[in-house]
Amino acid sequence: MSPASLLQYAAFLLCVTLLVKPLGGYMARVFEGERTLPDRLLRPVENGVYRVLGVDPRHDMGAREYGVAFLVFSLFGTILLYALLRMQSVLPWFDAAFLKTPMTRDLAFNTAISFSTTTTWQAYGGETTMSYFSQAVGLAAQNFLAGAAGFAVGIGFLRGLVRTRSSGIGNFWVDLVRSTLWILMPMSLVGALLLAWQGVPANFEPYTRATTLEGRPQSIAQGPVAPFEIIKNLGTNGGGFFNANGAHPFENPTPLANFLEMLAIVAIPAALPYTLGRMLDRPRQGWVLFGVMAFLFTAGLALCHAAEQAGNPRVARAGGVESSATGNQPGGNMEGKEVRFGVGASVLAAITTSNGATGSTNSMHDSYTPAGGLVPLANMLFGEMIFGGLGTGLYSILMTAFIGLFAAGLMVGKTPEFAGKVMGSAEIKLITLYTLAAPIFVLIPTAVAVATPAGLAGLTTNAGPHGFSEVLYAFTSSFANNGQAFAGLSANSPFYNLTTALAMLAGRFGLAIPALALAGRFAWQGRRPMTAGTLPTDSFAFAVVLIGTALIVGALSYFPALALGPIVEHLQFAD
User: Fold this and answer.
1) Which pLDDT band holds residue 320 (cuts at 50, 70, 90)?
2) Any residues with CB less than 8 A from the CB of 169 and at least 6 apart, and which?
3) Alpha-carbon torsion (59, 62, 68, 74), positive or negative
4) Torsions phi, psi for 464 (to 5 deg)
């Protein structure tokens, strides 16, 4: 590993770690109703929103009511966005000369679900499909609102662990408003200004016509890119204003812009474990969970970097190409990567975005080596437990922890518990339902796709193991509400628009509803005191159990599928 890459990785992890305590503590104060610096400015706005919505902020919702509010809000946002996309040709800033991809019913359906579930899976090129109005009013608004809704569910889950003998887990509408006003909007404002300072466009200028060096005409979109870019990362939405996503110089013009955008992806999810620790009055608990996330993040970073820096042995053998780093070249596998980012910044972005439930990429993962592409795929298959999305990442890692505690409890004949909350048969059933959702909605659609003409029709570039990996990656990314893709799959078809949309819905609501139900059961419990037979969940032993559980459950669920795709491709690759 080059000193430059090592320094970049270390600086990124250091910045993330330094943000954990101040940001996590701030979020705890926001959601516990304690005094914060923006209160004087934001309290009147918050109260005005409640009056308009007819919300009683003092009303404490049970898990069922909280879940219904979440579903209703998401449904309303999906319908509104679908209608806007279907009517974009009669709305402002639509230019048929440049927007040539038709907004069909199935594409609008897929896109509306994609953005309302924070997946932002894009089966289209942004600058040839979406008007500035659709981007700024439709998609960017959902980046805020859908992100805040997922954030609220995560906070509701935390309250289930914190409260005792309570029938409620908070108020969804209050958590939604406070997530937006106190956290996402201020951070987005500062972030958009920083990105605009770095050269990211923030305007409504018409498309620019240019002539390339080869003498060909080119149309270059601009638009409100900076505000779109920051909230797509902060809200762990992903997607791209442009088809090239973060590799486009308007989305990602400088190394500093690239670093800030990656930091925006993980800052809030990385701080949420500390929020939990502070709300439980057990800060060590939060640091242990963050430590597990950071360890798995670093392991993935090292594995992916090693695979990409090693390069493509077939190219080296066939053409005598030197793939090692020298003073004149970065070396490694540079296919699909920006020269200005190289292997280091590309791998850091790939690991960050695949762990952060954000499909914002600055390189083409389809062009990674088989082992290199396996790492972001495995990160998503872990179920967002490594940082993850807003709120979803924390309850994902806790669900994995509950499985580990259940297995450990079986070994010693003790009922599993976490933070004094007992996991009986009803709780274990909900955890099992949560755990089985991913294999069902990832593996079954993948099998259908590779066994039917409609699914195979999308493999216009690759077949064999790599084609299988492209299909598996698509459904994994959709279910993980991530949105990144192996771009060799042609996904803008009725089959993939409908099946990936179903996977997105399952990944959003099929996980959130069991999590809220479990939170409701935990909130109703008391808190059992620790005994000599209790495994301390703020200890190194618990961290080892958690990491082992993640690896074992992941291998048992997905190893056969991975063996058909990236693993066999790697064996062929090295032949």
Assistant:
1) low
2) 60, 61, 62, 63, 66, 156, 157, 159, 160, 163, 516, 519, 520, 523
3) positive
4) 65, -155
- Which token pair is 193? 């200004």
Task: Count the Cβ atoms, other than its own, within 10 Å of residue 451.
Answer: 9
The span from the CA of 482 to the CA of 491, in Å, is: 15
H-run or E-run covering 573: helix 568-573
In three-state form (DSSP H/G/I as H, E/B as E, the rest C), the secondary structure along 513-541 is: HHHHHHHHHHHHCCCCCCCCCCCCCCCHH
What does the block give as tokens for 430?
A: 């909900």
Taking only the tens place, the pLDDT of each residue in 329-380 is 667 788 888 887 888 888 998 899 888 878 788 888 888 888 888 999 999 8
Which position has the token pair 């973060």? 246
**What does the DSSP 8-state code read for residue 329?**
-
Q: How far apart are the first and last CA of the chain?
A: 24
Rounded Cα distance between 542 and 545, Å, is 5
Coil, strand or helix at 363: strand
Query: Comparing C-alpha atoms, which of 556, 455, 437, 560 is closest to residue 498?
Result: 455
- β-pairing, 208-211 vs 217-220, is antiparallel
What value, to the nearest 5°, has the Cα angle with vertex 395 and ends 391 and 401? 150
pTM, to two decimals: 0.89
Alpha carbons 538 and 277: distance in angstroms, whole number: 10
Tell me, what's the pLDDT at 392? 84
Separation between Cα atoms, residue 246 and residue 496, nearest integer Å: 24
Closest CA to 265 of 292, 296, 294, 230: 230
Q: Which long-range contacts (CB under 8 A, 24 or more apart) does 52-55 make?
A: 53/173, 55/171, 55/173, 55/174
- Residues 451-465 have pLDDT tens digits of 999 989 888 888 888
Label residue 520 exposed, middle or buried (CB < 10 Å: 0-12, 13-18, 19+).
Answer: buried
Note the pLDDT tens digit of each residue in 9-61: 999 999 999 999 999 999 999 999 889 999 999 999 999 999 998 999 999 99
What pairs with residue 370 in β-bridges?
A: none
Q: At what angle do helices 255-279 and 140-162 cross, to 10 degrees?
A: 30
- Tokens in use for 89? 């040709």
Please report which confidence band the pLDDT of residue 248 belongs to, taking 50, 70 and 90 as the band edges. Answer: confident
Q: What is the DSSP letter of 205?
A: P
Distance in angstroms (rounded) separating the CA atoms of residues 252 and 258: 6
What are the tokens at 254?
């400088």
Q: Record the tokens describing residue 524, joined without a space.
A: 């109703």
Q: Cβ(512)–Cβ(389) under 8 Å?
A: no
> Which residues, other chains included, contact 506 with Cβ-Cβ below 8 Å and sequence gap of 6+?
437, 440, 441, 479
> Which residues have a Cβ under 8 Å from the Cβ of 439 and sit 6 or more positions away?
557, 558
Mean model confidence pLDDT for the chain? 86
Q: What is the pLDDT of residues 476-510, one digit of tens each?
A: 988 988 878 887 888 778 888 889 889 989 989 99
484: helix, strand or coil = coil
Q: What values do phi and psi take at 309, rounded to 5?
A: -70, -25
Element (H, E) at 421: strand 421-422
